[in-house]
Amino acid sequence: MEAVPRMPMIWLDLKEAGEFAFNAAVKKSAVSVPRDFEGCSTLRKYFGQLHYLQSRIPMGTEQEAAVPITWTEIFSGKTVTHEDIKYEQACILYNLGALHSMLGAMDKRVSEECAAGAFTYLRDHFPHSYSVDMSHQILNLNINLMLGQAQECLLEKSMLDNRKSFLVARISAQVVDYYKEACRALENSETASLLGKIQKDWKKLVQMKIYYFAAVAHLHMGKQAEEQQKFGERVIYFQSALDKLNEAIKLAKGQPETVQEALRFTMDVIGGKYNSAKKDNDFIYHEAVPALDTLQSVKGAPLVKALPVNPTDPAVTGPDIFAKLVPMAAHEASSLYSEEKAKLLRDVMAKIEAKNEVLDQFMDSMQLDPETVDNLDMYNHIPPVLMEKCAALSVRPDTVKNLVQSMQVLSGVFTDVEASLKEIRDLLEEDEAQERKLQELLGKVPVAQGSPPLPSSGLAEVSKECSKYMEVHEKASFTNTELHKAMNLHIGNLRLLSGPLEQVRAALPSPSLTEDDKQVLQNLKRILAKVQEMRDQRMSLEQQLREMIQKDDITTSLVTTDRSEMKKLFEEQLKKYDQIKVYLEQNLAAQENVLKALTDANVKYAAVRKALAEVEHKWNTTIQTLVASYEAYEDLMKKSQEGKDFYTDLEGKAAKLLEKARAACQAAEANRQQILEREMKKQPPPRPTAPKPLQKKPLELEAGSGLEAGDLAPLSSLVLPDLPEELRSL
C-alpha cells in the first residue's frame, strides 16, 4: 500500500505494591517508576538484584528470612499477600511486561517483544497461583497479544520498506495467527471471568484485527499473483481481501476515528485493486478465476520472538550488590565451569565449520541454485516486459498498417525522384549525341575519340545540378534500402505482438522434457531440498547450543557445593548438552551421504540442464528480439517520415531541374538549326553542269558513315545544286 494505516494496540496496567519489609528507598524506586524506558531499566535492575538476593538469603515460602509481601491484583483491585521473595520478583516482572506493552502502544511502536519476553519468563519460571492476573491463562493471553502486536509493528515496517509481496503476506498471516490464539483465550469462559469488563472490548478489537490483517495478507497475495502473471488468482485474492475487510468494518463499530480512517484508506486501496484486476481479466486476460479454497493457504512467518530475560546479565542488572555474600571459591568454580562450556562450544564449532567449508566449496563447484534449477513455470506465462508491449499495441491496432503505408509512400516518392533524374540524364545524353553528330557533319571541330562536345552554358549548369542530385540520391538510396530491410525485419514481430496473446505465447520457445527428464529434475530438487534442510537443522542446533550455554548459570549450586565435589558437579551439569551434541554429530555425519547422492543426481541432470539452458537462451533471445522490434517501431516511423520529407523536397527540385533541362535542350536544338542554316549560306555558287533531276527520297547513307537518316532530316528538302561542295559526295 502507498501508506501504512495504523491500528490501536492493547496495553496493560501496572500492579500496585503494598507491604514489603524491605529498605523503603529501594521499594519506592522499584514500584513508582516513570512510564518510559528508564522505568523499564529500573525494573530490570531491581528484578536482577532480587534474584541475587534470593539465591543467598532464605526468603522463600516457609524459610527463615521470609517476610510478608503485598501487591494489588489488576482486575479485581484486591490486595494479595505472600511470604515469598519470588512473589515480589513475579510482580516486578509483570510490571516490566506491562510497561513495555504501554510503550509499545505509543507512536514509536517498539518494546512488544520485550513485553512478550517478560511474560514468557514469568510463565515459565514462577508459580501461577500467586494471583489471578498472573495465572497461566492470562499470561498466555498476554504473550500472544504482545507477539501479535510485535509482528504487527514488523508488518508496518515491511510495507514501508516495500518488501516482497509474498513476505509481507506471510508476516500479515502470522499476525492473524497470534491474534487468533489470543482470541481463543479471550473466548475461554474462565479467562473471561478473570478479565471482567475489559474482556468484551479486547475481544472485539482482536476479532476486528483478525479480519483486517487477513485482508492485508490476501491483498499482498493478490499482488504476488499479479507479479507472477496469474491474473485469475489475482482476482480471487483481491476479492477475498475485500470480503474480509468488509467483515472488519462491521466489527469496527464503536472503535475510535483513527480505526475508521485506517479502514477507509484500506478500502480505497483494496477496492481499487479488485476493480482494476477484475476489469483487466474480463477484457484482456480472460483467465479462469479459481475458488479460494483450491489455492494454497498463506503460511505465517513468525519473525518476532519473546526476548529472553536474563536476571544475571550485568549489562542490565548492574553490579551484584550482594556479591560479597558469595564465597570466593564459588566465583572461582563458576569461572572454571564457564571455561568448560567454552571448550565444549569450541570443539563443536570446529567440527561444524569444517563441514560447512566442505559443503560450501562443493555447492559452489556444482553451480546449482535451488531457486532456479527448475524454472519450468517461467515458460507457462508471457513475461511482464512482453505483456506490456502487447498491451501497448492492443490500444494502437493500426501500428503495422501505418508503418507499411508510410514505407509505401516513401517508395513512391523515391521512384518519382529516380524517374525524374533518369529523364534529365536521358535528355542530356540525347543533346550531347545531337551536338556531336552536328559537329561531325559540319566537320568544323575535330572530335577526339570518346570526348563529348562542350555543352552550352545552360546545359552545363543543368548537368552539374543533375550530377549533384544523382550523388545525393545514390547516398539516400542506400539509406532507403537499409530502412526497408529494417522494416521487413521487424514487421513480422510487430504483427505477432499485435495479435492474440495465445499466438504470442505459442511463438515463445518452451522446453520439451520426457517423463524420464522430469523424474531426473524432481530427484535433483528433492536432494537439494535435503541439503537445505541439513543446513537449516545445523544452524538451528548450533543456535540452541549457544543459547543453552549462555543461559547455563550454576552459581547458586556452586555456593552450596563442597569444593571436593566441584568436578563431579561440572560433569553432571555438562551432561545436559549430550543430547544436542548427538543431534549435531548425526547431522554432520549425514553430509557425506547427501553430497554423494547430489553428485549422482547432478550427473544424470547434465543433459537436462544443457537442454534447459538452450531453451532458456532461445526464450531470452526471442523476447529480446520482440521487445527490440517494438522499440524499433517509433524509430522506423520517424526515419520513414524523414525520408518522405527528404524525397519530397528532392522531388520538387528534380521536377524544376527537369523543366529547366527540357528548355535548355530545346534551346540547344534551335541553336544547332541556326548553325546549320548559316553554314549552308556560306557555301560558293554551284558549278554549271547539266542538271539532273534529284530523286525526292531520303538520302542513302554509306555503311559505316556514323550517321542515320534522321540526322539529315533538315537537309531532305534541299536539291543537289543547293548543297555545299563537300556535301555533294554524300
Automatic annotation (TrEMBL):
Recorded coiled-coil stretches: 414-444, 524-551
UniProt-listed InterPro entries: ALIX_V_dom, BRO1_dom, BRO1_sf
Source domain of life: Eukaryota
Domain BRO1: 27-359
Segments for region (Disordered): 676-708
Keyword Isomerase: no
PROSITE patterns: BRO1 (PS51180)
Keyword tags: Coiled coil, Cytoplasm, Endosome
GO cellular component, one term: endosome
GO BP: early endosome to late endosome transport; endocytic recycling; protein transport to vacuole involved in ubiquitin-dependent protein catabolic process via the multivesicular body sorting pathway
Location of this chain's protein in the cell: Cytoplasm; Endosome
Location (main, coarse): cytoplasm
Keyword Transferase included in the entry's annotation: no
PANTHER family noted in UniProt: PCD6 INTERACTING PROTEIN-RELATED, TYROSINE-PROTEIN PHOSPHATASE NON-RECEPTOR TYPE 23
Protein name: PTN23 phosphatase
Naturally occurring in which organism (per UniProt): Galbula dea
